[in-house]
Design goal:
Structural class: alpha+beta
Strand content: 5-15%
Low-confidence stretches: 1-56, 75-83
Oligomer: single chain
Shape: flat
Number of helices: 16
Strand order of the largest sheet: 3-2-5-6
Number of strands: 7
Order of helices and strands: HHHHHHHHHHHHHHHHEEEEEEE
Distance between the termini: 113 Å
């Protein structure tokens, strides 16, 4: 390093530079550092300037007061010149670092500072100042010491200061996690014990450290509602003691509505609900036995079923249910038979079939149910065929289907006591069969050169105009002529409708 220069007057640049050094608080943006050499030059300059000013002042006082007296008493002699005071530069403290070493330390200090700023942001978010105590003070002091050293370019001092602060910060972060865990545990224990005040304190402590802590927020809400929950549980307990079980259950449910996790309210509700169910079971059994004695089997069966819901597997309720079923069976058979016959009279065959089948599942030996099922199945099959043909009359265009339809009409007419619905269906299908069997005159036009064939009828030959009588249906006429492409014309003949002339001519030469 070069030897410092002796300054004999005030250095304005040194003064101005000194005023730019701003103290950095932990967590603020880092100020651009001032080099140590420039700071030391500034301090040396101020020291030399002050020394020179004192010497000048002493000389001036001597000239004003001492020199006149001395001149009056003595003859002038050789003037004595004051020797200038040599100010030696300060020796640097510690070993002198090379530029490479300083650059390495600066990089290390900057890296530690960046980590420290991130860590301090986390600690600020955890409100470490509120609970950190002496460790927090030590953390801040070490951070400030690192900042001061960094700004003075004393990176060899900034690195250990920052490292120490980071170590203390990690300890504080670990301590915050321990505090949160312990406070949550204590808060939950206080909730279980019914101590709302202590629970509030513990959960508020956690939220003060970590505002977004979900378990603490949930616990805080429970603790705030706990006094009201305790009042409702106490009311429910008193109502249960007085025998008002329904109101007691309502109070316990209200408590659980405020805090579904409050175990005493849940266990109390379970107990009072069991008592209510027992009371309801006894009531249903008494009512069911009364209905059984009065041969009101349906009502008895329903009451015994409700009793079994309240107490599944109860032998008493099962026995009552069996008796009600046995008494009801005879009534039901007669009732089902009457209903099935009514469905037959109304020609509702599918519903009659279902009733007969249900009866045979109960008792396969019921003769009337067997006969009724066979009768209803036959009528249902007949009706399905009639409905299909009536709803799709074009099916009758087929010769085989038309023949089957005629036989179906005959079968339907042979049914005894057909009923109005079947009679109407017979009439509808018979009308369609007649229409499908009635020939319709169709006129075809050609050019006397095209040889025409009508499928399902036969060869018509060449002609200009011809007529054929055919049944309703779908037809195809094919024309052929030597040296010309064949033509195909399809048309539909509908019963009772006039059809426009059909043109069949070969007009497109080949090649």
């Amino acid at each position: 390093m070069s030897k410092p220069t002796v300054v004999t007057d005030t250095d304005p640049q040194a003064t101005a530079h000194e005023e730019t050094i701003i103290p950095v608080k932990l967590g603020l943006a880092r100020v651009k550092p001032v080099t140590a050499a420039r700071q030391r030059d500034s301090r040396h300059s101020r020291l030399l300037v002050g020394t020179a000013l004192v010497v000048s002042l002493l000389l001036a006082l001597a000239v004003i007061f001492v020199l006149p007296l001395w001149v009056a008493e003595q003859q002038p002699e050789e003037p004595v010149l004051a020797l200038p005071v040599e100010v030696l530069p300060e020796e640097p403290e510690g070993p002198v670092l090379t530029a490479t070493e300083l650059a390495t330390l600066r990089d290390q200090a900057e890296k530690l500072l960046a980590e420290l700023l991130t860590q301090q942001a986390r600690l600020d978010g955890l409100a470490a100042a509120e609970w950190g105590g002496d460790a927090w003070e030590e953390y801040q002091q070490s951070s400030r010491a690192g900042d001061d050293a960094y700004l003075a370019d004393a990176f060899q001092d900034a690195v250990p200061a920052y490292a120490n602060a980071l170590q203390i910060g990690e300890q504080l972060l670990g301590r915050s996690a321990e505090i949160i865990t312990a406070a949550l545990s204590a808060g939950n224990a206080a909730l279980d014990a019914g101590n709302a005040r202590l629970a509030l304190e513990q959960f508020q402590l956690v939220i003060g450290i970590e505002a977004g802590n979900a378990p603490a927020q949930a616990g805080l809400e429970r603790a705030e509602r706990l006094p009201e929950v305790l009042v409702l549980v106490q009311q429910g307990t008193e109502l249960e003691r007085q025998g008002d079980l329904e109101e007691a259950a309502r109070a316990f449910r209200a408590a659980l509505g405020l805090d579904p996790s409050w175990a005493p309210a849940r266990s109390a509700l379970t107990a009072v609900t069991a008592r209510i169910d027992n009371r309801r079971f006894e009531t249903r059994m008494s009512q069911g036995l009364t209905a059984l004695a009065e041969e009101e089997f349906a009502a008895a069966l329903e009451l015994f079923g409700e009793a079994l819901i309240l107490r599944p597997g109860s032998a008493e309720a099962l026995d009552g249910q069996i008796q009600a079923q046995q008494g009801q069976k005879l009534e039901q058979i007669a009732l089902v038979e009457a209903r099935a016959l009514a469905f037959e009279r109304r020609e509702l065959w599918e519903r009659a079939i279902q009733l007969y089948r249900d009866l045979l599942v109960t008792d396969a030996t019921l003769v009337f149910a067997q006969a009724g099922l066979e009768r209803s199945v036959l009528r249902a099959d007949l009706e399905a065929k009639l409905v299909n043909l009536i709803g799709n009359p074009t099916l009758l265009f087929d010769d085989r289907v038309l023949a089957d339809a005629g036989g179906l009409v005959a079968d339907a007419r042979s049914v005894e006591d057909p009923g109005p619905r079947l009679e109407e269906q017979i009439a509808d299908l018979n009308r369609l069969v007649v229409l499908a069997s009635t020939l319709v005159t169709v006129e075809l036009h050609s050019d006397e050169l095209t040889n025409v064939t009508l499928y399902r009828v036969g060869l018509l030959g060449t002609f200009a105009v011809t007529q054929v009588q055919i049944r309703p249906g779908n037809y195809t006429a094919v024309g052929s002529r030597h040296g010309y492409r064949d033509v195909r014309t399809t048309f539909t003949v509908l019963p009772g409708r006039e059809l426009a002339p059909v043109e069949v001519r070969c007009v497109e030469p080949i090649g």
